């Protein structure tokens, strides 16, 4: 399995679109006043949006949109998304930890924003045969 | 903030069925930038052996997050939702969610712990079709931050 690094640019527009599609309208994901009031540096991405981007990397690596058997993460650092056209960037890498006889591949995933890891214990099991 | 550990093991009544719509899957896939044809095109999904468009792996959270309000809103448990942050999230799939599914959620409180002034609540949501076929199990750990 070719595990090339995937990068995803995240802007405020992406957060608004995700809020609408997911129904998660928590204002910390679109309103700087609310975000700073609760002690955040600014608007942050939905954890589940970050996880969805990691899921894109996993399904692309697996080569099939329906290959994911298990997928779990721990959210350790918020992804701050500035109010400009650049936004921020998330980088996703993985290593293969195990390939089972049943045709399952276990991946350990690393997701970073800048130099900081934003997830821990990020793991996926994907079906890689038949 | 602390939560009563005696709630561990409590299971809530099944939620009302959620109808998985083809356009909702397309909208979600578009919002996360996922362009695989099986998320958007029924024929492409059928070519992979599915009855209709396939949902991306984290799609079930739309259904389970709404369903787990049962727990978060349980006045006897007393979660202060304004202090909740998302700790962990995990999915274990029997099969992908597809358009046309009618899904029912059963929520269980798996774990409660209190430490460092914070409360930790792990919920498991068993997602099945309304006919009882298992689809995906979803775990969420919520952290209810203390008032320090």
Automatic annotation (TrEMBL), chain A:
GO molecular-function terms, A-Z: fatty acid synthase activity
UniProt GO BP: fatty acid biosynthetic process
GO CC, alphabetical: fatty acid synthase complex
Gene3D superfamilies per record: Hotdog Thioesterase
SUPFAM superfamilies (alphabetical): Thioesterase/thiol ester dehydrase-isomerase
Any Pfam family: MaoC_dehydratas
Record domain MaoC-like: where: 6-90
Recorded family membership: Belongs to the enoyl-CoA hydratase/isomerase family.
Name of protein: Acyl dehydratase
Native organism: Micromonospora matsumotoense
Automatic annotation (TrEMBL), chain B:
GO molecular function, one term: (3R)-hydroxyacyl-[acyl-carrier-protein] dehydratase activity
Protein family (similarity comment): Belongs to the UPF0336 family.
Segments forming domain FAS1-like dehydratase: 6-137
PANTHER family associated with the record: HYDROXYACYL-THIOESTER DEHYDRATASE TYPE 2, MITOCHONDRIAL, HYDROXYACYL-THIOESTER DEHYDRATASE TYPE 2, MITOCHONDRIAL-RELATED
Record organism: Micromonospora matsumotoense
Superkingdom field: Bacteria
One Gene Ontology biological process: fatty acid biosynthetic process
Name this polypeptide is given: UPF0336 protein GA0070216_103396
InterPro entries with a match to the protein in the record: FAS1-like_DH_region, HadA-like, HotDog_dom_sf, UPF0336/Enoyl-CoA_hydratase
């Amino acid at each position: 399995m070719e595990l090339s690094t995937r990068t995803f640019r995240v802007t405020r527009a992406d957060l608004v679109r995700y809020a609408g599609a997911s129904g998660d309208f928590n204002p910390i994901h679109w309103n700087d006043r609310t975000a700073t009031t609760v002690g955040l540096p600014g608007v942050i991405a939905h954890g589940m949006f970050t996880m969805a981007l990691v899921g894109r990397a996993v399904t692309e690596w697996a080569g099939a949109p329906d290959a994911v058997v298990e997928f779990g993460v721990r959210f350790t650092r918020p992804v701050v998304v500035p109010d400009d056209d650049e936004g921020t960037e998330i980088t996703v890498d993985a290593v293969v930890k195990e390939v089972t006889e049943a045709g399952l591949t276990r991946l350990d995933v690393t997701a970073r924003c800048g130099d900081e890891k934003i997830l821990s214990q990020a793991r996926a099991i994907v079906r890689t045969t038949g | 903030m602390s939560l009563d550990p005696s709630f561990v093991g409590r299971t809530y009544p099944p939620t009302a069925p959620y109808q998985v719509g083809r356009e909702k899957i397309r909208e979600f896939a578009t919002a996360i930038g996922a362009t695989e044809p099986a998320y958007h095109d029924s024929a492409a999904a059928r070519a992979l052996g599915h009855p209709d468009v396939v949902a991306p792996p984290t799609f079930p959270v739309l259904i389970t997050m709404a369903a787990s309000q049962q727990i978060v809103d349980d006045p006897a448990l007393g979660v202060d939702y304004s202090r909740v942050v998302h700790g962990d999230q995990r999915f274990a799939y029997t099969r992908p969610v597809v358009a046309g599914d009618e899904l029912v959620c059963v929520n269980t409180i798996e774990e409660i712990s209190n430490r460092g002034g914070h409360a930790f609540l792990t919920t498991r949501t068993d997602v099945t079709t309304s006919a009882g076929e298992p689809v995906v199990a979803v775990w969420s750990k919520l952290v209810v931050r203390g008032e320090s």
